[in-house]
Amino acid sequence: MASRTSAGTATVVTITIIGILMIGFLITSVVFYSKMTNAEGKVLNLKETYEDIIRTSEREADNVRIALQAARAERKSLVDYLMTNNRALMELASGNPDLTIDQLKNRVAELAGVEGESMTQTITRLSTLVSTRESELASMRERFDRLQADVDAEMQRIATIEGGIKKTVDEADSRVKDYGRGVEELRTRVEGFETRIQRQVDSDRSRYEQEIRDKENRIAELNQQILVLQDQVRRLRGESVHNRVTPMDEFALVDGEVAAVEPAGDVVVITIGRRDKLVIGMTFSVYGSASEIRPADGGQDYRPGKAVIEVISMDDSSARCRVVRSSRGNPVIAGDVIANPVYDPHKTYNFVVFGDFDVNRDGVATPYERDALVAVIERWGGKVIDDITGDLDFVVLGRRPTDPLQPAPNAPRSVYDEYLRLKRQVDRYHELFEEAQASSIPVLNENRLRTLIGEFPR
């Protein structure tokens, strides 16, 4: 009985041990399978990495085997060996070990100027070109040496010539200085003589110019008198002209009357005002009656009025005027008439103005001062026209223009044109006077016009 119990226990123990061993084996198998799976994954990754570094088909290539043997000999990996050689090659080719192959290609193309050319070909071509240039440079140096020798010889010859020239110039300078001193002395004497002569010339010119101006003024006055005398001769001979224009009656010149005189006697009231187109500053001559407004002794000179008045204020129908000039013993009184031949509230008087005038009273009559006289006429309401027509009222003539000098036959066209223009001015002056006399149109000079309008110097 006891033996059967021991045998059963041993069996149980054996089965238990076998079970434990089976479980251990199962666990060991699972662990081993897991590690084998991981190892296979790592092997697969290593194969992929190996393929990226070198393909299986490339391993048997001769150049790869040679490179691998060289790498083993240097105890390096193939990649390290190749990378080291690549950097050394870039350093040798370009001086920059970090340059890429594409960058090296671009630099070679830029250097060679030709795309697709290898570096060796480029170096060979450039070497040939350098050899050619060195040969040309040697030839040019030989030519330069020959030219330099010629230049040195020429410079030596020039130096010899310059030495001779300098000697000649020094001798000439010495003579020129002697001549210069003589010329300077002569110039001093000549300048002194010229100064004396210039003073004499200036003095004579001033005297002659003054005499010429005096004579021209006298000639103008005499010409005016001649024209007046010629007209008087024609009148005395009874000459008449067809289509004569009737001269203006003296009553037509009366513009108004003196209505009152203030007690002080220096201010008067006249019968015209703003509605008659009167303006402040207008002047009038005062006459005792309309019959006094006529040329004296049948001549051309109008008698001056007894006084001159100037408008200082006005209303619609009358105006106050100050007496700016009056005759001693002949005062202005109520009933006197006033006249300004330029002014008329109902009519615009027409004037022809021609000749040289001395409006600024500087003693020199010029054609340019005509504009100032025209402005006086237009200021008082008159109108200035160019030609004598049937409605012309007055001709105002200044001094006769000076006869121009006949130009030389070879004078420029512009000089001859100016001569003709001045000659036409002289002829026009005579034509206007003769036409006015023939038409019995009053001819006034500047002073006569100013006397009639009562303008006085300011």
Q: For the terminal residues, how far apart are their CA atoms?
A: 183 Å
CATH superfamily of the domain at 345-453: BRCT domain
**In the CATH hierarchy, what is the class of the domain at 345-453?**
Alpha Beta
Radius of gyration: 65 Å
Here the CATH topology of the domain at 345-453 equals: Rossmann fold
Number of helices: 8
User: Average pLDDT value?
Assistant: 79
Spans where pLDDT lies below 50 across 5 or more residues: 239-251
Q: Architecture of the domain at 345-453, CATH level 2? A: 3-Layer(aba) Sandwich
User: How are the strands of the largest sheet arranged?
Assistant: 1-2-5-4-3-6
User: What's the count of strands?
Assistant: 10
The fraction of residues in strands falls at 5-15%
Largest sheet: 6 strands, antiparallel, barrel
What fraction, in percent, of the residue positions are helical? 55-70%
From the spread of the alpha carbons, the general shape counts as: elongated
Subunit arrangement of the protein: single chain
SSE ordering = HHHHHEEEEEEEHEEHEH
